[in-house]
Design brief:
mainly alpha; Diphtheria Toxin Repressor, domain 2; 68% helix
Length: 79
């Protein structure tokens, strides 16, 4: 099993996405750079955890959008 993220990391990541929705993407490295510009984070470990969770959330959003598009563009099934 993988590591469990703390509620503090999750809360900070969600708040940052809500406040700066266009700054973050599914790319982990880009999110690390964006965090360095936006917030003062005391340790690299916490910054990396937040960037990783933001990437995780953005990937989930992308998959949901792809599913919605697939449902909309799918041909109707013949009965």
């Amino acid at each position: 099993m993988g590591c469990v993220r703390s509620e503090q990391i999750k809360r900070l990541a969600r708040e940052l996405i809500e406040k700066y929705p266009n700054k973050f993407s599914a790319d982990y490295e880009a999110n690390k750079r964006a965090l360095a510009e936006i917030a003062i984070i005391p340790s690299n470990k916490i910054r990396n955890q937040i960037a990783g969770y933001i990437s995780h959330l953005r990937k989930i959003e992308q998959k949901q959008v792809q599913k919605q598009v697939a449902v909309i563009t799918a041909p109707p099934m013949a009965a």
